[in-house]
Amino acid sequence: MSGVVVKPLGPSLAGDFLRFFDHERGPAFADNAEWAKCYCHFYEVPVAIEWPSLSAAQNRVAMQARIEVGEMEGFLAFAGSEPIGWLNAQPRHKLPHCFDRMRVPATPLPCAAYEAAVVVCFIIAPAWRRRGASRILLAEALSSLAARGFRLVDAFPFKSGDSERAADHYHGMLSTFTAAGFAPLGETDSVTVVRKFLR
């Protein structure tokens, strides 16, 4: 994966983020049209709002606004100038609805909520899958979060087994997390909850 560079999302990368996700042209959901309207907005939305009621245009506007005011965080992977992967890893307090959306009990914390982060989504362009992009994104995210003083990171890989469908692994694969030093914290019928302490 030489030449792949990971950058923290910020207002200057709003155009690259939108270019990656734009459902008619971008690579994010090129092989999954059903999810193409998402723009990684799903975990930002309270469950009181019915997800199917939101259009692609509405999700795009919402995410553009969040990025431009610095309220959306995460990491984009680039090959040259082209975005090829995305990791939604954020401070826990910026994703207050994620546990309800995942139908997972909120994980107990041994620290203040602002010292914890969560990983909720990996999206890799089809041409770049199975080449290590997820591992690179996660490593860079952990390094960045540690440097900012976060104490721990929780993640929620699906119990997808050997499924070949990318849609079954968008929380990241359990093996990716265990290789990065995460340890099991709990489980539900659908996910394994894992945690890594950064300090």
Report what the structure shows:
With 199 residues, this protein is α+β, with helices and mostly antiparallel strands. It has a single domain (4-197), classed as 3-Layer(aba) Sandwich (Aminopeptidase). It contains five helices and seven strands. The chain has helices spanning 14-21, 56-68, 98-102, 133-147, 174-179; strands at 4-8, 75-79, 82-91, 116-124, 152-155, 183-187, 192-197. A seven-stranded mixed sheet has the order 1-2-3-4-5-7-6, sandwiched between helices. Helix 4 (133-147) links the parallel strand 4 and strand 5 (152-155). The longest helix has 15 residues, at 133-147. The protein is globular and about 40 Å long. The model has no long low-confidence stretch (mean pLDDT 93).
Helix vs. strand class: alpha+beta
Number of helices: 5
Write the H/E string, N to C. Answer: EHHEEHEHEHEE
State the CATH class.
Answer: Alpha Beta
Task: Give the biggest beta sheet.
Answer: 7 strands, mixed
The total strand number stands at 7
Helix content: 10-25%
Shape designation: globular
